[in-house]
Amino acid sequence: MRCASASESVMSDFLLTLPEDFDRHEWATTAKGWFTGAQLTVSGKTYSLTFYDPVRLSQEIRDEFSCGNDCFFEQNLIVVRSVTRSAMERAAAFLVQSGQARSLLQIEPSSSQ
């Protein structure tokens, strides 16, 4: 793995992109236990990812049920031990290397008008 810039990590055949200022605010992201704003690009396809730690995810699920909802759903949800850059990079590597990235829902390409 090599870092392409402060906001991107390149690992063989894929790219995990985080906002440019992620490193400055990583501590806050870790503390709140969730992050939406990561993009994974594999073989020319891009996916938006949402990361949760187990504690925050259980709180979100409990909140959904207490509001009367019958289910909890989050597209491209990835659960990591702690929401840090390194944990998200390891999760992205695992998804690609295990072939599970194929199960993610792709960001729709912009149509030119």
Q: What is the radius of gyration?
A: 15 Å
What is the count of helical runs? 3
- Spatial separation of the terminal alpha carbons: 38 Å
| Residue share in β-strands | 25-35%
**Runs with pLDDT <50, length 5+?**
1-11
Integer tally of domains: 1
Mean pLDDT: 89
Query: Which sequence of strands runs across the widest sheet?
Result: 1-2-3-4-5-6
Overall 3D form: globular
Give the ordered list of helices and strands.
EEEHEEHEH
Q: What is the helix fraction of residues, given as a range?
A: 25-40%
Largest sheet: 6 strands, mixed
User: Count of DSSP E strands?
Assistant: 6
Structural class: alpha+beta
Give me the secondary-structure topology.
Blueprint: E1 2-5, E2 8-11, E3 14-17, H1 22-32, E4 34-42, E5 45-52, H2 54-66, E6 77-79, H3 85-98
Parallel strand pairs: 5-6
Antiparallel strand pairs: 1-2, 2-3, 3-4, 4-5
